[in-house]
């Protein structure tokens, strides 16, 4: 009888312990945006001890690529299992992960050149304040990081370069760094049937949405205040832009990690990148 009771107690303890080690994801949350005049979706990952603690957590903003939405990192990137596993191993600190949707009505993380869709304004003026009040998130630069893949990698570059005072780490993966020249940008505008022809406006927008131009024009000390982790596969079609950013940062003596691994523009590659991203941003959260 004693053995049966002991086995029962051990089974209950094992069950409780296993469930306690699981984070939670919510992938269909919404908030109202005055700037975008619409309801905006976002997803969130909450760490395993969120509901049982009273502590505040660091935050990682994790951006999806073109063709996906706020569920991309959950469905294809396996955020829940990967982050839970890294926290359990101790290679990542418990953190909240916010995954916004940039694929509704219009695609992309930036304000348009026509100024008729100001997504970047929404991100910084509405989304970030909203989630950092709704969840127990630490709001200091040291405890805030950004990462993303492809289009979201471009968003990670631009957001951290536009606002280096807000992010301790930035991790662009297989990033689209923006058009590589003004002429490329003009061709892109033509394809989008844009009516913008003002050369000064086109040049200014290009310079503010191209990672290499921003490295040249931004105060180097500000860029150095962000920890950079750049990762792009050797078979990725975006290898050129990422390589050029690496070279530009080397010339400016901006410390950064630059990784080129075997692989292409695929979820297989990005799933393998995520544990490294989590470790990298956790180093800053832990005060390396």
Tag the structure with descriptive keywords:
single chain; 288 residues; alpha/beta; eight-stranded mixed sheet; globular
Architecture overview:
The chain is an alpha/beta fold and 288 residues long. The protein is built from eleven helices and ten strands. It has an eight-stranded mixed sheet, with helices on both faces. Helix 3 (79-89) crosses helix 11 (267-285) and helix 8 runs parallel beside helix 10. The longest helix is centred in the N-terminal third of the chain and has 19 residues, at 2-20. The chain is globular. The chain starts with a helix and ends with a helix.
Count the strands? 10
* Class inferred from helices and paired strands: alpha/beta
Helix content: 40-55%
Query: What number is the mean pLDDT?
Result: 93
Count helical runs.
11
Span from first to last CA?
53 Å
Largest sheet: 8 strands, mixed
User: Strand portion, in percent?
Assistant: 15-25%
The Rg value, from CA coordinates, equals 20 Å
Write the element-wise H/E pattern from the N-terminal end onward. Answer: HEEEHHEEEHEHEHHHHEHEH
In the predicted model, the low-confidence regions spanning at least 5 consecutive residues are 5-19
Principal-axes geometry comes out as: globular
